Amino acid sequence: xxxxxxxxxxxxxxxxxxxxxxxxxxxxxxxxxxxxxxxxxxxxxxxxxxxxxxxxxxxxxxxxxxxxxxxxxxxxxxxxxxxxxxxxxxxxxxxxxxxxxxxxxxxxxxxxxxxxxxxxxxxxxxxxxxxxxxxxxxxxxxxxxxxxxxxxxxxxxxxxxxxxxxxxxxxxxxxxxxxxxxxxxxxxxxxxxxxxxxxxxxxxxxxxxxxxxxxxxxxxxxxxxxxxxxxxxxxxxxxxxxxxxxxxxxxxxxxxxxxxxxxxxxxxxxxxxxxxxxxxxxxxxxxxxxxxxxxxxxxxxxxxxxxxxxxxxxxxxxxxxxxxxxxxxxxxxxxxxxxxxxxxxxxxxxxxxxxxxxxxxxxxxxxx
Length: 368
Description:
Rossmann fold, AF1104-like
C-alpha cells in the first residue's frame, strides 16, 4: 500500500534541497533591466491580457458551483475584482506586489476566488474526468505492457504524458473545446505534433533510462483526469516495476483542474487492488506527498518539509505540465538528474520558445 505524507501549511514551506544556487523559478523574462519600473513592459501586458481573457471561463465555472450559496453573484464579484486588479497592474506593474510574474497573477486570482467564497470551482469536472480516466487505466497499462522493446515502451509512456496533459482547463482554447466536445485520450495520442518537438531530449532520456536505475524519483504532478491517471501513473508504475521508489508530489490546495494531494490519495485507492497492487505492480514503494503548493506554477524555494525530506536522497526530479515544467523551472538545474515534460498551450509560451501551439517539451538534464 502506498505511503502518505501529512498535510502542510504555508508556515512550513522550505527550499527544495536539490536546487542549484542560481535557481530562478520563472522561465520567461517579463521585463529587462533597462525597462522603466513604473511602466508595464510589453510582455507583462500580454500576460495580464491573457489572464483577463480567462475571467469569463472562470466566472462560468464559479456560477455553477452548487456548494457555494449565491454562486452567481459571488462569481460576478470575483470577475469584477480580479479584472480591477489586472487593470491596476496595467497602469502600475508594482501595484499588487513584485515581481510581476505568472506566480503573482495566479496567486491574486486564487486569493480573490477564496475571498468571495470559492474553494474549488473545478471540483465537479475533475471528479467526472477522474472517473472516465479510471475506467481506461487498465487498457492503457496493458497497451504499454504489450510493447516488448524498452525504448519503444518508454516513448509510448512519454507520449501518454503529453496526451494526458491536454486536459488543461487553464487554457482558454482547451477549456472551450472541452466544454463543446469533451476530450479523448486516444485521439489526443494520435494528434500529437510530430517529432522533432521544440525541445526534444527523448532520445537522450531513452539512453539514460536504459543505463540507469534511479533509486528514488520525485514527480511534481499537474492535472486531474487523463493527465495524472493515464499519463503520469502508467509512467510511475513503470518506474516502480524497475525498482525505483516514486514520490508523487501534488498540490496542497485546488487550483484550476490540478490534482490535489487528497484527490490523488483517493485516485490511487480506487485504482489499486486489495493487495496494494497497481495493475499487477506493488505500490509499496509509492509515496503520495503534499507539495505545499497552491498554484498551477511552482517556486521550488517554497515546498513542504515532507517533499524536502524525501528529496534528500532522490536521484531524478520530474516536473510535469506547462505550469511547473515550462512556464516555471524549464531551465532550472538540480543536484540530481531532472526531466521537464509538458505541452505548450499558451500563445505567449509558444512565442517565447519559437514553437507551434500544442508542441511538446521534454528536457532532460544530467546532474552536474
